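Field: COMPLEX_INPUT
Field: COMPONENT_COUNT = two
Field: RESIDUE_TOTAL = 420
Field: MODE = joint
Values follow.
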Amino acid sequence: MHDKNISQVVISRLPRYFRYLGDLKDEGKERISSGELSKRMNVTASQIRQDFNHFGGFGQQGYGYNVNYLYDEIGKILGLDKRHNLIIIGAGNLGQALANYMNFERRGFYVRGIFDNKESLIGTKVRDMTVMPVEDLKDFIKENSIDIAVLTLPKQGATGLIDTLVECKISGIWNFAHCDLDVPDSILVENVHLTDSLMKLSFKIHDHNE
Amino acid sequence: MHDKNISQVVISRLPRYFRYLGDLKDEGKERISSGELSKRMNVTASQIRQDFNHFGGFGQQGYGYNVNYLYDEIGKILGLDKRHNLIIIGAGNLGQALANYMNFERRGFYVRGIFDNKESLIGTKVRDMTVMPVEDLKDFIKENSIDIAVLTLPKQGATGLIDTLVECKISGIWNFAHCDLDVPDSILVENVHLTDSLMKLSFKIHDHNE
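Field: COMPLEX_OUTPUT
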């Protein structure tokens, strides 16, 4: 249960909290104060308390937060207590890299299939999966309860598949294509625009040296 | 020349403007009004004008912005008129994917070398480059005027190399490792935390369905 009007900024900080709490768990730490967490994360203790208050505060006592409890609760808010079935559309280098990244499975994200529209890639093996043609997308999504599509095709190929994904009522798209997607509100999109990110770094470097 | 106190939010929008202006250029469009651009980008025209005012406004006339001029100017602000020499540290799937991504070169980012600390990868070929051992990092950075290091090693390997990169006075780190880096202010860092991004998508999906 949480405040429905949480800002995107607060939400975007949750995975980082989750990451640090995972580290604390790995270190065997059982409790942590907002002051200690603030030092580690390089944010103010008051920001941490404000962020957590959106979710009921996670029951901080005078002696701090219970690390395991906080980790589990933030995990639940992020939907990590549920299983997600993913497909990757685009079996090029990036698609292959994501298919092979085992860390996602630890978080409940399972890659169930990989697709491409290139003859040369269809039928090849990625991890333990055979690359399928995009024509098979619809049936596969329905039969395998796929909720997330990872788009690693170039722009033209990606935009051409949007109608199919909408029709299949996919829940979310993790978009690596170098464009913004025009989808109905019922489909949630998270973009990873790599070139944009590299340009931001370039800006910072030049701004710093000016 | 620009206002030195521009917020990170405005800066983070610049690559997106650049991307849309590139599309307009490709379509052969010569002028565009803030109203038209606003419709395409799904942001308000007043936000566009406010953002551009941080950089002197880019000389909008009654009949709109000159697309080529605006594209070039934003490119310059992003430092894309200069050449950047990159190395990739981590020759696994993700490092290989980034090494093979030609789009970066179009923007002036040249991958000059690729490194790893794994015996099994050192000496293998990625694109036209032979994977080098991390021991060779220092000399290579100096001899090849490398300004950006792309970190695609797992967490432990990545944090262990920070001292070396600091010593080599690298300008920027594009960090894909699943951790935050502790570096002096002289080194600019841009993080791509893929797992964090996937968690954000998961949050959106669950928040939407609640």
